[in-house]
Amino acid sequence: MRPWLEKQLHLIDFTLASLARRKTKNVGLLLAYTLIVFVLASLSLFTHALRSEASYVLAGSPEVILQRMVAGRHDLIPPGYLDKIGRIRGVQKKEGRLWGYYYDPVVNANYTFMARPASEVADGTIMVGSALARERGLAPNNTISFRSYAGKLFGFTVAAVLSPDSELLAADLVLLSENDFRRFFEYPEGHYTDIALSVANPQEVRTVAAKLSTALPDSRPILREEVLRTYQSLFDWREGIVLTVLAGAILAFAILAWEKASGLSAEERREIGILKAIGWETSDVIRMKVWEGLIISLTAFLLGGIAAYVHVFHFGAAVFAPVLKGWSVLYPRFTLVPAVDGLQIATLFFFTVVPYTAAVLVPIWRAAITDPDAVMRA
Amino acid sequence: MRPSTLVLALLAGLALAFVFIFGHFSWSTATDAERLAANRALVEHYGLTDLALFTEARYTRHPSQADLHSAFQDHPAALEHFPTGSLVAPRSLPLFRDAPLAGKTTSPD
Q: Which of A195, A224, A253 is the last residue of a domain?
């Protein structure tokens, strides 16, 4: 074991000396390599964390949301609609929801207004999301006026500001009483925006949805699993878009790395010839080059990976956030809970370290099996 | 110290840091778990369906509740207004769901 280890250490010493002779070129390669790993790892960590968080919190959303469609567009639920659902077996709880959008010209932003029972929000008061409170400078007990779509001015007292930790979900939320909601939007009595249904047995959700579609042909049931799928595909798509944008840079690096790894310069070729002439075996030359590939690619992978982790979970992925998260006037401030997928890291390792190390081998093997004299004269 | 020892020590240090950071810190802390649980409770309580990431239009604020063809929902041939829309994936619907039956039915197609 000892002589083998000693031999490897000598090989590494020689490799490092050889790398140091082409310092600028190799440092440049290492930097470009690290940057590529950093970009790919950041992207993968960020989207995975966002996907994990979305699927965890949205797993609590209603099992089925029932919308009514008129001429292919979302319409109000008329009185009596709720009663028809009551007869469908498996539906545990049904609740007409009242919510809508309000455009606030003061900050040029859209708010989501949602009615809550009087036991939660009293008439004349509202609870607001913290991004909205920040944007409008609101604190509990402040008053704020909104001009309704009918042109009337409504004043509300802020009863509470929702926790800043919930910004990802409730940045733009305004919770108000049902009476206030109906007055503000002039919502017809007995009408609802949509219906939230609770299904006792998760296995029955699809059956319930099918029964709903049959019983109420003008309805569109939206299942919780569809909500979750929407967010999965949304972040997959965004990750794909960033990757497409970066594809040019990644390809350029791949060409650079391939060129560097698979093509031997005249100097390297001469070096191999001399090594062979002074008694190095082909296997030693190959081992030396494998060490070279491993040192460069492993350093780049580890440095890039660590930098990506710090970038995503400590600096909020400042480089990609606008594209991956989206942007708007009322933008939520949130920190992601670190979530790492081992498979993603393994894939990244496989696609960064292995190809480079492997690419080094072929030309070296070819040069190393040639006659030293021919290699030196070439 | 010989260069090989130095480089191997550096690589081992980096590898340890990597494993420690990704292995240790990737477990959500008690505060994180509490925040996630509170957010899930909020979703359950208010019946929320979407993240408040893109608030510019109704179909970007609530993508899961939007119409199926949201890019053209305002009027026929209405193109996308908002940058988010171009970054939200189109719904993958089986467009030709009757294709396997083509030519096999007894009634005319």
A: A224
